[in-house]
What does this fold into?
Amino acid sequence: MPNSKSAITLLNSTSSRFRFARTFLRLFSRIKSQRSATFASAPPDQLKRQSQRIKMVAYSSMARVAGPRRAWARALLFKLQTRPRHRTLMRRKRRPSTSPDDQVGKLRRLLPGGETMDVCTLLEETANYIHCLSTQVKVMKAISDQHLSTPN
Amino acid sequence: MEIKVGTVGGSSTIGRQSDDTGLESLQFCEEIQGLMTIPAENASSFTALLELPATQALELLHSPDSAAAAVVNDDSVHHCIKDVPKPYFSAFNCNLTFPTNSGLIERVTKLSILAKEHSPETTSSVPLNSSVNFEKVKNEPTTDTDSNPNPLQTLISDPKVENTNQRSAKRKEREKKGRGSTKKSKNESNEDAEKLPYVHVRARRGQATDSHSLAERARREKINARMKLLQELVPGCNKISGTALVLDEIINHVQSLQRQVEFLSMRLAAVNPRVDFNIESILATENEPILESNFPTMVSPLMWPEIPVNGTRQQYQPQWHFDGSVNQQGWARDEHNHHNFSPPENSLLSYDSSANSASLHSNQLKMEL
It folds into this structure.
């Protein structure tokens, strides 16, 4: 990311929106194609799984767009790629207790990979994370609006 | 200790037994010289210890065996030569230089022979000689040695006292050196703090200037800047003052965004399970609304200098799908894309890719479907 460190400019936001849309659509279309390939009769259980998968895809595309320099993106990708059982074991072993009370602790638990950051990096990464997340939400909203408006 | 006591006892007994025979006095002299040559290094180092750097001095002092042995060796030697009284021994030891000492030893031996010849009635021949000699050299009172009837007792008891004296002197010296070193280190640390990293942080009047508070202040300023950035990013956060409230707002915002992502993914999953999946139609129908109808509600059109005309827009789409269908995603690939992602380059890319892959792309689509 060439200008990720500087203040988020408008040009950057538009171009990052391009990137978000492209990456997400790519992964999303892959999922959709997989599902359309396997799709004969969808039980209601599969819908849930599908939404889970789409969420994962959304997050991973977000992390990919943000790039490997961002700590939260790295942590998010790691989280998505490793198995949950593994993860809980590792986390339990590594970090037995985090500060639960204050806002910084809360923020730390919200931000992927935030448990190992100091406050300064935590705030910086949070700013970037919020930016990426809001962009992702906008993109997804646009896509779903489009879906809702067109097909039926 | 024991060895020295033994040697000292031997020498003193020799001194006692040697009444007037020059041969035994010669043996005595040899023994003294042997004793002197062995502790010579120790003693010299011990005297030089005062001028040593603090670390070596400390090392020497902290290795009690060698130091104590040196001390006691010295003591025994000097007591064998001439029962030196305690308080002056240290001064003598400080001024002791061994090249001159050989001549002194000769003098001592001569004198001891003379003394033995002159006064054989003394219980120990050595102490009186030493007193004479020492009054020559240093003007020393011999009250202690004379009052002590048994030289062995003085030999054994004296070194302890003397050790304590010398030790205390050394301790004072060390403390002085320690103070000096701490002062030096403090000065150095102050200089380092003035030189070192936070040049941009200036201490105003009344603010602390040591490195820790400077670093702490820099950290606080950094955090404040980040908080300000976050305040600008989170809507409705500008008017709130107070770090805790701002952080609360940020947390709420992040949570709401994450919930939105979840909700949207559910909606996307729920949407059109029965719509036939057509990438072309999706791309054609989605991307334009995303870029043109939906975004301008959020972004004013002035920020869209790169909004393409519909003709070029159509050329983007094959490339996008080309990316999606052919390339495996990875960091490197993504980074490459990002760096190249600016509208003119992209149009070039899309020209190339669309020109090359338009037919290929449609074929692929059919293959996929």
User: Anything to note?
Assistant: Chain B has three domains: 2-182, 242-271, 278-368. Chain B touches chain A through 64 residues (CB under 8 Å). The mean pLDDT of chain B is 52. The radius of gyration of chain B is 48 Å.
